[in-house]
């Protein structure tokens, strides 16, 4: 019986070769896209799974309800109190530096070592990398201890067994206490060296509840409910901190929390940080985009299944007599269903094998696109993709199988089936669903393109052209004096037009935030120290008031400038702002506002411009120690030559042995668009795949349906119908289906794309053009595809179809 079924299947594949090729092609494309996106998802989900304590380690974040904002910082007293008072907390680690680079010297050589991290003593309890040399006990105790990865040990000493050896940097000697091997598995936490945070800063922060300078991981005792710990964090830590300050502030605990925050805590499991953290030190979190891509890949597979269902039901009349004969000789309905399911499974399996080969072929390009190193060695990929094949087999095979097996033997053997309307509603309904999905992809693709183009062309409120930023090393004890010396010397270099410094740099600013108080109102605002000329240097526009002036001593004591967002947040008018003084949380004196500048984007266009104050770096004692760059405006006529001269000067006279770490501001900010440009590219590729699959399916379906009407065409042509009338008559049904499908897709597409646009603070208004273009383009494509077969039908051999009438 099985052998007989296989022969019948092969005969039908050959007979309907076009439908077979289209089904194979569509399912292969759909399954390939599904497997690539699934591999991408699995890779993102695999981070930190190497850690043996992963089930009990949580990443700490905060939430401020009035602002509806999330943070990822904590103060030292808060972390200490949590461990002391919350029963479920076993240990914690604090860190305040990641990805740092230092020039290190050994007896053997001097090396600039990148990707370092500062962390407190418990780091290796929570992240137990494989120990190669030394001991983790007291590995980070004190300022003179350093732990190295095997790669860093080889770079510095040429070997890994270096525990006890000496390393010098920042004019201090450090002892290597441990050498560890980093995990080969995916991890966002892979420091090449680990040292304790600066003890000078650390001791200053130990008693300061408001210095949120650290990120934190907490290790909970096995069996502890993290939600209970979150609740206790609010009660025993946040409210306790509020109780210390509420009396001096003249408010209740709840008023203090609402004003200064945080109002809630969040503990995200270690393995979920990459995709599900609300805020992270280790890179952007964008689970929604991943879900969108996965959903779109599934939709392509569904489209392929729809093609299969449509083509199978359209071929019903060709197999009607076969089914009638089989039923007449005793074949049961169940046998027929299994036969048709087997035929479907063969096509799906062939597509699956082709998809595996195509995925392997496309994987290098996909890896390059996402900067990954994925390989097809994860059994989950094969399991889930094969499960998808089985599901497609059932969905695309069971519907036509059930439909075909329900034919009545008496009708099919009498030849009446070909003239019946069985299956018309099924085919039309499934074709409508296919066109709805196609319409959504066209609309969505156009809206994504418009949003990305809008972001690319939006006035950012500043100009970063020809502005080159050079980062200092972290080792200088008085960096502001270094900047002032370099400013004088580097002005003499040919090609340098102007020089300045700004902490809040567009695209990569280090601006920090704190509460900004005015009377009984407080907001959270950024603060960026700068040189007097910095805002003019990057072409920010002054809205009201004046610029900071180096000839006024008050401009280095307590005068600041603010942006429009700062003024709006307090509910002031611009003129009112110039009459007011604020008290920032980072200082104990009032600051007078002397100027308001127009908003400009420091971060991605996805987020709103935040309230920010600007002041001279000498205005606060601690800010001058944070001066970390020098920015130069370059003559546009000799950029390459100027960069070469600057590099030579820097490496010979400023930081010998350190890399020349620079970038241009406009290029750096452009990197914030890369994710959206990738989304645009992927949506365009998926759009093309969807249209290709849908149009090929439409062509095959229209071919089969028009073939069933050839006798009608012959009769009408004999009665005098013109070719044009016949073509319109044959395509009219498909055009109506397309029109209905687009109308149905419009509200669905509007809702889904509006939800996507809500993620952008700066977004386009929902355009009408994509919806109109979707309708027009699908009508034109439908007519073009169907009319080809309709035109061929008008050339029908009249004698062939009318000789028995």
UniProtKB/TrEMBL annotation:
<feature type="transmembrane region" description="Helical">
    <location>
        <begin position="768"/>
        <end position="791"/>
    </location>
</feature>
<dbReference type="InterPro" id="IPR003838">
    <property type="entry name" value="ABC3_permease_C"/>
</dbReference>
<keyword id="KW-1003">Cell membrane</keyword>
<keyword id="KW-0472">Membrane</keyword>
<feature type="transmembrane region" description="Helical">
    <location>
        <begin position="21"/>
        <end position="41"/>
    </location>
</feature>
<keyword id="KW-1133">Transmembrane helix</keyword>
<dbReference type="InterPro" id="IPR025857">
    <property type="entry name" value="MacB_PCD"/>
</dbReference>
<keyword id="KW-0812">Transmembrane</keyword>
<dbReference type="GO" id="GO:0022857">
    <property type="term" value="F:transmembrane transporter activity"/>
</dbReference>
<feature type="transmembrane region" description="Helical">
    <location>
        <begin position="336"/>
        <end position="359"/>
    </location>
</feature>
<protein>
    <recommendedName>
        <fullName>ABC transport system permease protein</fullName>
    </recommendedName>
</protein>
<dbReference type="Pfam" id="PF12704">
    <property type="entry name" value="MacB_PCD"/>
</dbReference>
<feature type="transmembrane region" description="Helical">
    <location>
        <begin position="379"/>
        <end position="404"/>
    </location>
</feature>
<feature type="domain" description="MacB-like periplasmic core">
    <location>
        <begin position="20"/>
        <end position="232"/>
    </location>
</feature>
<dbReference type="InterPro" id="IPR050250">
    <property type="entry name" value="Macrolide_Exporter_MacB"/>
</dbReference>
<feature type="transmembrane region" description="Helical">
    <location>
        <begin position="290"/>
        <end position="311"/>
    </location>
</feature>
<feature type="transmembrane region" description="Helical">
    <location>
        <begin position="425"/>
        <end position="448"/>
    </location>
</feature>
<dbReference type="Pfam" id="PF02687">
    <property type="entry name" value="FtsX"/>
</dbReference>
<feature type="transmembrane region" description="Helical">
    <location>
        <begin position="682"/>
        <end position="706"/>
    </location>
</feature>
<dbReference type="GO" id="GO:0005886">
    <property type="term" value="C:plasma membrane"/>
</dbReference>
<feature type="transmembrane region" description="Helical">
    <location>
        <begin position="734"/>
        <end position="753"/>
    </location>
</feature>
<feature type="domain" description="ABC3 transporter permease C-terminal">
    <location>
        <begin position="686"/>
        <end position="797"/>
    </location>
</feature>
<feature type="domain" description="MacB-like periplasmic core">
    <location>
        <begin position="434"/>
        <end position="647"/>
    </location>
</feature>
<feature type="domain" description="ABC3 transporter permease C-terminal">
    <location>
        <begin position="295"/>
        <end position="406"/>
    </location>
</feature>
């Amino acid at each position: 019986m099985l052998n007989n079924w296989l022969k019948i299947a092969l005969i039908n594949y050959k007979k309907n070769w076009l439908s077979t090729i289209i089904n194979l092609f569509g399912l292969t494309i759909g399954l390939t896209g599904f497997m690539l996106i699934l591999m991408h998802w699995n890779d993102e989900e695999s981070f930190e799974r190497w850690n043996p304590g992963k089930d009990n380690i949580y990443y700490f974040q905060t939430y401020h309800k009035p602002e509806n904002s999330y943070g990822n910082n904590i103060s030292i007293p808060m972390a200490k109190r949590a461990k002391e008072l919350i029963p479920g907390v076993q240990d914690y680690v604090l860190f305040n530096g990641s990805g740092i680079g230092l020039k290190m010297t050994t007896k053997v050589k001097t090396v600039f070592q990148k990707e370092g991290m500062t962390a407190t003593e418990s780091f290796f309890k929570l992240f137990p990398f494989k120990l190669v040399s030394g001991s983790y006990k007291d590995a980070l105790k004190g300022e003179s201890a350093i732990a190295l990865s095997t790669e860093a040990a080889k770079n510095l000493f040429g070997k890994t067994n270096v525990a006890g050896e000496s390393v010098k940097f920042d004019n201090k000697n450090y002892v290597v206490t441990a050498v560890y091997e980093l995990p080969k598995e995916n991890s966002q936490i892979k420091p090449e060296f680990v040292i304790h945070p600066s003890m000078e800063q650390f001791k200053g922060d130990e008693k300061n509840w408001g210095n949120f300078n650290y990120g934190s991981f907490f290790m909970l005792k096995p069996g502890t409910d993290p939600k209970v710990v979150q609740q206790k964090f609010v009660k025993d830590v946040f409210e306790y901190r509020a109780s210390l300050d509420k009396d001096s502030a003249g408010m209740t605990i709840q008023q203090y929390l609402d004003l200064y925050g945080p109002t809630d805590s969040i503990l995200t499991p270690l393995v979920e940080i990459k995709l599900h953290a609300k805020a992270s030190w280790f890179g952007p979190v964008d689970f929604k985009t991943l879900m969108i891509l996965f959903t779109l890949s599934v939709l392509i597979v569904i489209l392929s299944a729809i093609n299969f269902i449509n083509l199978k039901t359209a071929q019903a009349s060709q197999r009607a007599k076969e089914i009638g004969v089989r039923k007449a000789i005793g074949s049961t309905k169940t046998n027929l269903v299994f036969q048709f399911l087997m035929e479907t499974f063969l096509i799906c399996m062939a597509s699956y094998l082709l998809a595996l080969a195509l995925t392997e072929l496309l994987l290098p390009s996909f890896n390059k696109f996402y900067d990954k190193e994925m390989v097809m060695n994860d059994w989950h990929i094969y399991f889930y993709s094969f499960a998808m094949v089985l599901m497609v087999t059932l969905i695309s095979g069971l519907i036509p199988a059930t439909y075909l097996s329900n034919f009545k033997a008496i009708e099919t053997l009498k030849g009446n089936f070909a003239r019946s309307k069985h299956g018309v509603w099924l085919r039309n309904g499934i074709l409508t669903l296919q066109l709805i999905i196609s319409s959504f992809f066209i609309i969505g693709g156009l809206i994504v393109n418009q949003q990305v183009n809008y972001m690319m062309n939006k006035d950012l409120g500043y100009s970063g052209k020809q502005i080159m930023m050079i980062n200092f090393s972290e080792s200088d004890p008085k960096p502001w004096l270094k900047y002032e010396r370099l400013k004088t010397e580097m002005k003499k270099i040919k090609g340098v037009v102007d020089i300045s410094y700004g902490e809040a740099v567009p695209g990569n600013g280090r601006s920090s935030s704190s509460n900004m108080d005015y009377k009984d109102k407080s907001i959270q605002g950024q603060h960026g120290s700068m040189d007097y000329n910095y805002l003019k240097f990057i072409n920010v526009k002054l809205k009201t008031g004046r610029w900071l002036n180096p000839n006024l001593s008050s401009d280095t004591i307590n005068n600041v400038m603010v942006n429009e967002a700062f003024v709006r947040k307090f509910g002031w008018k611009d003129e009112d702002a110039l009459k007011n003084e604020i008290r920032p949380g980072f200082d104990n004196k009032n600051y007078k506002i002397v100027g308001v500048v127009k908003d400009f984007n420091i971060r991605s266009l996805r987020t709103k411009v935040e309230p920010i104050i600007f002041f001279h770096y000498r205005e606060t004692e601690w800010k001058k120690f944070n001066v970390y760059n020098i920015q130069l405006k370059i003559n546009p006529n000799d950029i390459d030559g100027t960069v070469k001269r600057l590099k030579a000067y820097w490496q010979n006279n400023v930081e010998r042995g350190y890399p020349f770490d620079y970038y241009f501001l406009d290029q750096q900010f452009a990197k914030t668009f890369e994710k959206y440009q990738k989304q645009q590219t992927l949506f365009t590729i998926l759009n093309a795949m969807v249209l290709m699959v849908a149009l090929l399916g439409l062509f095959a379906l229209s071919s089969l349906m028009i073939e069933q009407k050839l006798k009608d065409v012959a009769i009408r042509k004999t009665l005098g119908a013109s070719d044009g009338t016949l073509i319109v008559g044959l395509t009219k049904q498909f055009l109506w289906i397309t029109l209905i499908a687009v109308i149905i897709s419009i509200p669905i597409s509007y809702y889904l794309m509006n939800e996507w646009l809500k993620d952008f603070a700066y977004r386009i208004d929902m355009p009408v053009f994509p919806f109109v273009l979707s309708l027009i383009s699908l009508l034109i494509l439908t007519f073009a595809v169907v009319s080809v077969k309709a035109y061929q039908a008008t050339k029908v051999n009249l004698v062939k179809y009318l000789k028995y009438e």
